[in-house]
Amino acid sequence: MITKSLIKSKKITLKNLNLKNYNKEYCRWLNNKEINKFLEVRFKKQNKKSIENYIVNSNKNPNCLLFGIFLTKNNIHIGNIKLEPINFEHKRGIIGLFIGKKEYWGKGLASDSIRIISQYAKTKLSLKKLVAGCYSNNIGSKKAFLNAGYKVEAILKDYWYDESQKKFIDEIILTKNV
Questions:
Q1: Which of 23, 96, 147, 161 could bridge to 77 as Cys pair (CB 3.0-4.6 Å)?
Q2: pLDDT (tens digit, 9 = 90+) per residue, 31-53?
Q3: What is the CA radius of gyration of the chain?
Q4: Is residue 173 part of a domain?
Q5: What CATH number is associated with residue 102?
Q6: At residue 104, what are phi and psi to the nearest 5 degrees?
Q7: What are the phi and psi torsion angles at 90 (to 5°)?
């Protein structure tokens, strides 16, 4: 789904990700074992074509809203946040995000992105509930959602297999009524 809306905070701007504005480092981010450690995309090597197909298909999908996370001060693309799937009938959506530029980890930009997309989901899309999930050992993601006002609603035991630790990891489900 394409929107012309820019969603801004003091530090970041969310805008539809497209073939003209995405960071050419995106492919490197998705293939970096430290950055992609908690992303399901890590199981398949990414390339320019797969990324561009993902962007185009996401933008065509009426139940997906894919935003790039850009620094407001200099318009640098540092990551993505999306709502997908959006279920308009039940007024809910699932949020996923990542910050690809590691130098911006731990600076509150993920929480800021979550806060402003949540407000957008409420005011512009009339959604009532947002859901996110993360590996239990993904401390940064869990903290970002908690700092944005989400609550842990459920824990799915032994949900993900962590190949680096050779063991199963719980899934944490975080939600917010907007």
A1: 23
A2: 999 999 999 888 999 999 999 99
A3: 16
A4: no
A5: 3.40.630.30
A6: -105, 5
A7: -100, 0
Is the CB of residue 126 less than 8 Å from the CB of residue 169? no
State which amino acid sits at residue 6: L
- Residue range(s) defining the domain that contains residue 102: 7-128
**What would the mean pLDDT of 158-175 be, rounded to a whole number?**
94
Cα–Cα distance between 112 and 132 in angstroms, integer? 15
Average pLDDT over residues 96-106: 95
Q: Which two tokens stand for residue 94?
A: 């699932």
pLDDT (tens digit per residue) in 2-14? 887 889 999 999 9
- What is the 3-class SS of 32-62, one letter each residue? CCCCCCCCHHHHCCCCHHHHHHHHHHHHHCC
Tell me the whole-structure pTM to 2 decimals. Answer: 0.94
As for how many domains the chain has, the answer is 1
Residue 24 has, within 13 A of its CA and on its CB side, a CA count of: 0
Strand pairing class (12-16; 77-87): unpaired
